[in-house]
Amino acid sequence: MLRFLPDFILAPLMAVLLCLNVALWGGFVMVMSIPKLLLPIPAWRRLMTSIMEAGVRVWSVCNILLLRLGNRFELDIRGLDNTNPKGWYLIMANHLSWVDILVLFGVAGGRLPLPRFFLKYELIYIPFLGLGCWAMDMPFMRRYSTAYLKKHPERKGKDIEATAKACDKLKYHPSTMINFVEGTRFTAEKRARRNSPYQYLLPPKAAGIAYTLSAMGEQFDKVLDVTLAYPGSEGHIGRDAITGKLRRIVVDVEALPVTAEVRGDYFNDVDFKRRFQGWLNDRWAIKDRKLASLTESVSADSKVPAEQN
């Protein structure tokens, strides 16, 4: 609808609209967090959380509508047919752009429970952000370094226990926990700097997702291996999203069982650590092949007009 506008008008307009959407529904969550904080009655807090979840879902729907307002794109979603909006899932996804967050929340819609993130415990002390994340029952995790555990062996395993306890608040609120396994957004420069063995991915970081499965493995129905792609916009996804040039979004989902192969003591069991890293590397190799196929199909399509001429 707004694609007729020139880039120098459309880009700031899209940025403002997306920011206003965040401010509106972020403000809603903040306001609803106050009565939740002041009245520590479990049933009341669960009610407030449900109301805030509804607000976040409206925010996520509005994000997709705003993207469509400025772009004409195909949203290609694969593999979500057998998911349950009242189930529990762990998403492990590649990370390409800030647009990923909008897409994952928007795709969840009525097909998946509300997405959430594991957060470092220190973030709880950040004004407004900490309160908002606490109000949404985002689990804050404590991690003890190897050096710390050598000095305090009695704390071994306590970080997992503390995180599992933090997750108890979510038992009334089925969730989809999101983990961007690469730890940062993919760029060609980062790929070269890290000597990545993959063409379209950074090497996966196993510790975070292994930690999540240790703390919450019993709750998850499936691990959702999500491959995000924006064919034709590689390297400038965010820019294309606000300048009306986004043409296709692919969300490829492969549901994996939560088995003993992916649950164990990653930090103290050397054999499990080796097996888990092998499993994750295999998944990343599959993901890289999917991204290669999508990228090559776009390259082939772009050559058709030239060949016909």
Helix content: 40-55%
Overall strand count: 8
CA-based shape? globular
Biggest β-sheet, characterized?
6 strands, mixed
- What value does the Rg take, in angstroms? 21 Å
Order of secondary-structure elements: HHEEHEEHEHHEHHEHEH
What portion of the residues fall into strands of 2 or more residues? Answer: 5-15%
Gap from first CA to last CA: 32 Å
Spatially, the strands of the biggest sheet line up as: 1-8-7-2-6-3
Q: Are there runs of 5+ residues with pLDDT below 50, and where?
A: none
In DSSP terms (H or I, runs of 4 or more residues), the helix count works out at 10
Query: Structural class of the secondary structure composition?
Result: alpha/beta
**What is the typical, i.e. mean, pLDDT?**
87
Tell me about this structure.
With 309 residues, this protein is α/β, with parallel strands linked by helices. Strands 1-8-7-2-6-3 form a 6-stranded mixed sheet, with helices on both faces. Helix 1 runs antiparallel to helix 2, helix 1 packs across helix 4 and helix 6 crosses helix 8. The longest helix is centred in the C-terminal third of the chain and has 39 residues. It is globular. It starts with 6 loop residues before the first helix and ends with a helix. The model has no long low-confidence stretch (mean pLDDT 87).
Descriptive key words:
two-stranded parallel ribbon; alpha/beta; about 300 residues; 6-stranded mixed sheet
